Task: structure prediction
Amino acid sequence: MTELEELKQAYQSYTHNRLFPKAIQCAEFIYKQDRTLGRTLHQDFRKRMVYEIQTGNNGKECMELSRRSYFGTAADSFDDFMIAMEWERNPNSRFWLPRRKILEDRFKVCTAIENFMSEEKGKKLTLSCPPGCGKSTLIKFLMCYIMGKYPDSKNIYASYSDGMVKLMMDALVDMTSGDEYNFNEIFHRGKPEKSAEYNTIGYRRRGDAQTFNLCSIGGSITGRTRADLFMITDDLVKNAEEARSPERLETLYANYTDTISTRQIGNKVKEIMLGTIWSIYDPISREKIRYEGEPGYHFLSFPVCDEEGHSNFHYDCDDCYTDEKIQQIREKLDPVTFSCLYLQRGIQKEGMPFTAEQLTWYDGILPDGEPDNVFAFCDVAFGGGDSLSMPIAYKYGSDLFIHDVVFSRKDKSVTVPIVAHRLAQNKVRKVRFEANVGGQSYADEVSEAIKAIPYSCNVTSKRAPNTMSKMSKIEQFQQDIRNIHFRRDKARGREYDLFINELQTFSFTQKNLHDDAADSLAGLCDMDINGVVKIEVLADRKSVV
Result:
């Protein structure tokens, strides 16, 4: 019999004979050697203590032994950490225990966070639930836990305003330094270094990025704001007014991707996003459209009630949602706002013809043999936030494979040589440019750039017919677009990612910020279906080195 087996047998004997101080000693010894088995015994021990207390058997000693059990595992378990942190708090003031049976027992939120933190290839975890359910307070505890467990790491917390950042900063100082919580009894770190000027707090040396660097999404971000372990964003969308403006959400998402996300060090930073599902343009929805189903990405969303109107968040405290309260809220709000804020159902999927599940995908490897044709369609852009969009199709039989795209908002001085190079690189036989608003002159410049490579292909331009609106054209070819094979491999590149993201967010019923991807694909399908790609290869076309 191994030492662990002997200790487990001893534990069972001691609990059977109600020798609980010796039983917990066995659990503690086992926990040091085998965390999984030790945690199982600690959980069993706590249940026994609850039973002893409820039956009136030496309640004071059992409470002390329960406390010892929770504090013994709190440094390695986020769930136990929150319970231990609030052990001495007034029961009416506690956050976690009154909400635990919903957030953990029903929705497994704490388990999801713990699994994500330990997941070797974890990338992103999002959490969406109604206002007032405690997600921001949960994150306060998580940030304390990260500071205690990983004091030498660098992490970022970002919210929509400086005011929210200050509130979070004050809470972290109180929870790690005050007497109301048991942070230092769990981690023995002492009081953290903090700076109200730079909104930093943690246990790293002064002058460097701290364990936590707090900032607002639109505020000033100092050079010391860096993350090498976790990045947490908390309700980046300020309010319903901002949420209803696709343009403002576009700017917000650009700030998130171009400012906050670029402060990461290395490629192992894990992101945790909190927020409401407003529409296809809010940050969480944009990330979900792009990454759902990919390894390491997890999207959690919990509505305030079930289909029959019964509350999902009836906590064991006054601050909860009853069925009656939910009905009152529903009656006061317009259906769209209630759907977004309380059901986490953004105004999005109706009228969206190109979601991930509707498109056809391939792994980036083209069929064997030479393609029957390679052609492209280019929707030219000259500012205004639109993108030049040029999907390049490889045709095998009746199947089209979009193996490469040019998708850029840059000036034509940049895009003309890129377009010419990609046409030559992919050995495109024919490309058509939409001639509206300067498209003809753009095609002429590309034609000259191709000759200079040197390479030859058939370059044409054609005005979009006035009799058919852009939306009607996309609608006409929507099934043909769905039948096209799109790449889903990681090597497809950022331009392809942006192209697919825009395509998937296109809607027939909601306002589209941009429709260049869908429009260019409709043009490509028009070329294919109307037979204009069936041409002879030019005799002077030269191979590209």
